[in-house]
Every structure is written in structure tokens, then in C-alpha cells.
Amino acid sequence: MHKEQGVGKYKEIIFDSETPEGIQEISNIKIENPNSIIVFATGCMDVAQPGHPIFTEQLRLVGEGVALEKGKLLNDTEIIVVMGIGRDSTLKTLKREGRPINPEMNRAYLVASYKDVDYVILNNREIGEGKVDFGKVLKLLNPDVFVINSDDSAIDIKAKLCSNLGINFKKVERTVPDFLNPTSSTEIINKIKGLS
């Protein structure tokens, strides 16, 4: 997947899971990349912070690991990283009052600009058990692997969903390289509000 040139170029790799066009585009990712390892993960990505691009770097590395597990040569296998973004309505339901800070399309566009991200999907509006707002997307996309942070509060539910769909399930640790200060979107918001 190669991103086009020009202002607004990342719009072309953002798909809305609630529109017929978006549903078709999501289904096409696997068809258009038959020899690839497709890695899928989700998040709110509300206020930009270094943990977000670190996570997408981890996704690409997980994809490379899965490729090697399957006996594929990395030079011959493209790793496709697809990031699902929670809807504004999802954040209003799951987060504290006043969230999201940034509207869903702004958040999706920012994540689409990350070097390691190939596609971004606006997740479903419906929230299922375990805060799953991507069940339909997971079925449409049918990725090779679904990745979550190891401290996710619904690991068992998400692992079971992946098992039922025949999707490889991987966990990664939240990592902060030595040259960065650990932070979170909530900490940034609290600091701006003068709460920390």
C-alpha cells in the first residue's frame, strides 16, 4: 500500500464501516493484498501522544513475527497495518465527560498519517460485550492477526471472538523507549485543565 501525494491524501485510506462504500473497501483490503499479513488493532486515539505511533510500530513488528511463524520470507511478504478508530459516540459512552476531544475524522486522519499505518477504519457505532465496537469490522476485514495491549480490560472476550473467527490473537506490552516520557491522553487532558 502506497499513500498518494498531496494535501488531504490520507482521506483515501480511511474507510467508514457504517457506509456501503466503506464496507466494500474494508472487504477489498484482503482481496487486494492476497500475499500479505494483515494486522488489525483498535483504539480511541483521542489526543495525540507518543504511545500511539509506538503502538503502530509494534503492530508492524507483530505482523513480521506472524509472517515468520507462517514460514514466509519478510522480503516477499507485505505487512498491512489496519487501525480501527472508535466513534465519537463510543468515546462518549466509554470515556469520561467531555470526550472525545477531537472528532472521529480528525483522529482517523492523524492516525492515517503515521508511517506504519496502511489503512484506518472508523469502527461500528454499536458497542458489544467487552467494549467491542469492531465486531462487524473484524468479520469483514478477516485479518491474519488482531493485536491488543496486554493490560486490556477485555482480553478474554476479545480472545474468544478471535478464536471463533479463526483470527490469530496477540498481546503487546505498553512500551516507552528511554528517550520518551510516559504519558497518556488522559494525563495530557488533565494537565491542560490544570488537574495535574
Can you give a write-up of this model?
- With 196 residues, this protein is of the alpha/beta class.
- It has a single domain (10-193), classed as Rossmann fold, CATH 3.40.50.620.
- Helix content is 38%, strand content 16%.
- The chain contains 7 helices and 6 strands, in the order βαβαβααβαβαβα.
- It has a 6-stranded parallel beta sheet with strand order 1-4-3-2-5-6, sandwiched between helices.
- Strand 2, helix 2 (51-69) and strand 3 form a beta-alpha-beta unit.
- The radius of gyration is 16 Å and the shape is globular.
- The N and C termini lie far apart (41 Å).
Architecture blueprint of SSEs:
Layout: E1 14-16, H1 20-32, E2 37-43, H2 51-69, E3 79-85, H3 88-94, H4 104-112, E4 119-122, H5 135-141, E5 145-149, H6 155-165, E6 168-172, H7 185-193
Parallel strand pairs: 1-4, 2-3, 2-5, 3-4, 5-6
Distance between the termini: 41 Å
Number of strands: 6
How does CATH name the architecture? 3-Layer(aba) Sandwich
Strand content: 15-25%
Helices and strands: which structural class?
alpha/beta
Determine the fraction of residues in helical runs and give it as a percent range.
25-40%
**CATH fourth-tier homologous superfamily:** HUPs
The CATH C-level class name: Alpha Beta
CATH overall fold name: Rossmann fold
Q: Helices and strands, in N-to-C order?
A: EHEHEHHEHEHEH
Please outline the major beta sheet.
6 strands, parallel
Low-confidence stretches: none
Number of domains: 1
How many helical elements?
7
Kindly report the spatial arrangement of strands forming the biggest sheet: 1-4-3-2-5-6
* Broad shape: globular
Radius of gyration, in Å, reads: 16 Å
Mean pLDDT: 91
